[in-house]
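Step 1: inspect the first sequence and its tokens.
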Amino acid sequence: MTDTADAADTTDAVDSTRATGASAQGQGAGRDVGREVEPGARKEPAKGPSPTPAPARGAAPSVNPSATPSADPEDAAGAWDDGLIARRVNEGTAGEQATAAVVAETRPGTAASPAAPLAYDGPLRSRLDALRELVGLSRARLDNRTLAEAGRVLDEAAARRKLSGQHTVVAIAGATGSGKSQLFNTLAGVTISETGVRRPTTAAPIACSWSDGAAPLIDRLGIPGRLRRRPVQSAEAEAQLRGLVLIDLPDHDSAAVQHREQVDRILALVDAVIWVVDPEKYADAVLHERYLRPMAGHAEVMFVVLNQVDRLPGEAADLVLDDLRRLLDEDGIALGEYGEPGATVLALSGLTGDGVPELRELLGQFVGERGAAGRRVSADVDAAAARLRPVYVTGQRTGLSEDARDEFAARLADAVGATAAGDAAERAWLRNANRACGTPWLRLWRWCQDRHEQATGRIQVRTPADEEATARQRVEQAVRTVSDRASAGLPAAWAMAVREAAVRGSQGLPEALDELAGRAGLPPGRPPRPGWWPVAVLAQAAMTLLQIVGGLWLVGQIAHWMEPNLGVPVLLMVAGILGGPVVEWSCRMAARGPARRYGQDAERRLREAAAGCGRARVLDPVAAELLRYREVREQYGRVTGVGAGMR
């Protein structure tokens, strides 16, 4: 394929030839050669010399510059000279030119009857729906660059689904000099794509459709109408490849950057690819590293053709073909050699035609199955899922365990002093018991001691000012610990989301815990008393009464108001003096259980209050992020076909 500037010299020669030789054919014959025809209609040969049969498959066509077609109807009077490829429909005599006129262009955007749209099967639709849901759930957590490939696959799958399901778009790709254009012409039965020794020869993709209704598909590829052709085939050969749309691409290793860009663009849109390699460059690193290896998952819609085997002597063709299979296996491309799905590998010669019938038969079967487009989309989904795997799968169990939740609650309880509050509540209960059941003399002494202290028994659970900083640090440490444990095993993006949720929830948490601790303290007043306390109080009052009676009795005897009898009053006093401490000690022993339960209940309430505050502010947002990650993991499992049980 020559560039526009390089084609100028050839165009001059073509124009001079037309000026001297083509004028005898008349204006009408010159117009019919390059006129576009509507899809579904075949152009009638131009009037003139009897048509010459098309050359045999594999034979080199004769060259006649006057056979250049017109790009548009209004250009019929003049030569079509835009410097692009495919301007020679058939380089032959004037009679051969009239025969080749059936290789007509298809006007873009027109169709005789709209083809039935492509229908994806149930599993593929389910995978596409899951991928769409996956992208939607991930947009708030992943950047657009990460999701770009998945979005492109969804867009292209939707666009392809709206187009014909009766056509299969196959691109012929290869390196410079591999003979792909020659193979393209051989399959079409006529010289459509220009071949030659000058490189690059093919500068723009050319489309050849074996049936009507493919215009929207070719429009999607961006191929203009002047580069669209129909093959010259027998009825049997055309029926064999009915539904095929063959695209001849520029060289993927072309020195022109725009050529390589066109190759990359169209390869992402076609349903299948025929890679044409030659014995000299079949192991080219550019081909394997840039194209074959990244497209290993597309093996089912891939043909690898070793062309120009006529240049290899003896068994060399088999040896080269075996080495090509070895390289493809190293690239990870499955080879469908034993009925298994995979790439088709074969050897042929586009020049002599050896192996071309086999390729034509395989293409006919491939196109007749009408499944290439769906397999291509499925392979694209697999490739997109493989790229997204690092952001969804780590191979580790994820989530927030109950141990982590309990540890977080315990750390918050320690920060608000739940244990100390429980001990204080227990001591308060015992102190109130001692006040109720102690001896009057001991109670009087304790009253004097505590008269400057609070007598209500309310527990102060707020941390002192010098301990507030320590309590805040404990809260922050608890949040960091639970966020680290919750994000362990998560991909980087989701781990960051979990940590951010924990940090947002921890803002204002120490102040909320302080306020909660004040509300969750013991109610004002004395702690509740058990039912046996009145009995103990009466017993202690009786012991006090014995002491008073015995003392008064002794005083009366000393004052001679009563008869001397030391035994009874002394016995009463000793009973009262010893009985009071015994009653107090008994009450203290009996009060240990209720006091402990009272302290534990106070500690439990404070722990529950702190845990509830931490759960609402930190654990619930973290759990929401983990639930969102579980949802995307389930969707990713549906995309890959593994299911929701992935870890």
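Step 2: inspect the second sequence and its tokens, then contrast the two.
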Amino acid sequence: MKKFKLNLSFVLVTVLLGACSDGKDGANGTDGTNGNGGIDGAVGLNSLVMQTELNMGDSNCWMGGIKIDSGLDADRNGALATTEVTSTSFLCNPDNFGTTGERLSYTVMRNELENYYYPGSTFEVRNGGYGSDMDGHPMNTTQFYALTDRGPNSNYRTSQEGAPHGNGKKFLTPDYTPRIGLFAVQSTGDIAKIKDILLKDRDGNNISGLPNSAALGGTGEVPYTTDGEVIRADMTQPYDEVTNPAVYDDYGLDAEGLAALKDGTFWVSDEYGPHMVHYDANGKEIGRINAFTADIRTDAINTDYGLKINLPAEFANRWANRGMEGLAITPDQKTLVGIMQSSLDNPSKNRTDLTRIVTVDLETGNISQYLYRQVKGSNSNSAIKALSNTSFLVLERDGAFYNKGDETAQKHVYKIDISGATDLEAVAAMGDIEQNSNLGLIIAGKTIEQVINDAVDYDAGWAELAAKNILPVTKSTSPVVDMVNEVSYPHDKMEGLWLIDNTRLGVINDDDFATWSEATIGGPLGQKYLDTNNTVVDGNTLYIVDGLDLSPIQ
């Protein structure tokens, strides 16, 4: 038989557990005395948010949008005061101006001409044409003026020798009146044309775009119809140089530069004379500046200023169809500033990288001249706008189409300053330097253009000028904006600038009324296309580039 040894600890635990199973709860103790109440904490401040709708033209949201302010209601009045704002953000309305641009509207002037690029079909001559220059409305930051040139035209060579009546231009709408359009940017991103201002002579008659006579800078361009007939006094009778000659218009303009003044008037420069013409708010001529002292119209010039002013005579030697392409007014509204498109043919053909800038003090009549050096010879300076009384933006371009495969296409805007440049008008005659009444400043018997053109290279010519202490304007080493890099700019003729504010710049192109002509005998006509496949028709397009430093050169 097995024996078991009983564990003593087990017995003790069992006895104790049995003893606790039937005990009674003890009585509750007396509650303690309540402590003193604590001091109330400060009431917290409410956080407030305020939204403000921004109108078109706001400096932070140019297309309009919403301004969002937030902060704490420190004065506890339930409204967010300016001093309480701790954070501000903006929700701006989007636009396409800085990417694809926005096209201006147009009407069709004629559409029955055969399209050279698609035989058997016709093309549209569009009006259009608002791109020779532009300028902002002085009192409305969302409106701008845009200028047309002489109207739809094309080069016309009748033969290799220019017979029978001479080479010239075909005018597709000979009665076209150059004009200034007023446009407004809409909150939708569209552009609305508000009105046209037709340019008129001093008697209030509409001018044309037909060439001037030889006495006023005409270069012998014969005006033709699209059928190759000379535009003459009596179109029912045959052309005769004496009895039924070609029609010229001494008030006619190939308008290229535009300055809109605060008093509502306009100054327009052109490439026929070149002329600088003052128009009232309705487009009627009230003054004129040019290089032709024999122009009797300058006897009553600038009635607003009581002055007769002529440009230096050498400006009459402008390269044909490359006259005064850009025009600006300084911020104090006292000085006109014009820039020539390319070199002067002074006294004969001199195609270099030198162009001229002229300033005209409208109060005193004083004139100054300065030199500008282009990136490439025979480039075009197509616009100038004032940042200050001495600093300017200058548009410099070539004539290439980037979208037609020319990756070297140049569409640049530079900053310049004239304060350190040599005023050619102030250079005193000394040694081999003289001032010629017809050719301007002469060095060793050569005009400024000849000095550059006759050198081994352009650098040597500019060095020769520098040795005579003749210095060009200061120019930014890199462009303020390169439109090819910015938007793959597809147009050939970038020609207008709109200085909107300190960071925004508007850019517009001349679409040539959507027409194009081949540089061959007879000048066949067609639609103007932007691509090699001839599918995208050119049109006036506004681009707005933001984020630029448009402050004057210090």
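Step 3: confirm your contrast with the notes below.
The longest strand covers residues 47-54. DSSP finds four helices and 34 strands in the chain.
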